[in-house]
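Go through this chain for my students:
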Amino acid sequence: MMQDTNIWPEQVELVKRDLAGKVRATGEYDAIIWKIRTGYVLLLYSTVGLFIGKGSTPNLQDIANNTVLSIAIFVTILGFSFSVFLIDLAYVRRKLRVVVARDELMQAFLNDVGPPELSGLRRLLTLSGEDPTLFVRQPGLDDEELRQRLLAEYKKRMIWNRWRVLVWLYTTAPILSLVVFGVARFLAI
């Protein structure tokens, strides 16, 4: 049984369209983000291949002993990784703003028109793939409290994405290049 509300069918349709648009936008941001990440890997290893040359198997000890080439490869990897990290971060931030707004809209809509029996489903109707600890809308909040809560939720999700995905993705190649060159130099001694 639905709660007695003053929601008009036009408002319901507006909310449904907005929710659909936010889900579509999230999917489009995901597609862009994965294109960035795939392009990063392809260009990174292609660029390293250009430095090494197109001979047979490269001799890592020779490359490691060539200080200028080693530094050039490392600086290129580091600079490229940092640049793509910043681009990726910008798109993740935009996507998370949409995710937080969509989740809040869903919570507000269900709190206004949904029966109490739906309370267990409310958690499932959020974009939970972004963060497993979802917030629940508290009744009686004013606009400033809502804004602060949304900002806190956005920051929490951003920190999670930054440390669980982005930092590892974009620091692996620079660190690995240092390790490889260091080991090759050590073995050459």
User: Anything to note?
Assistant: Residues 9-188 form one domain.
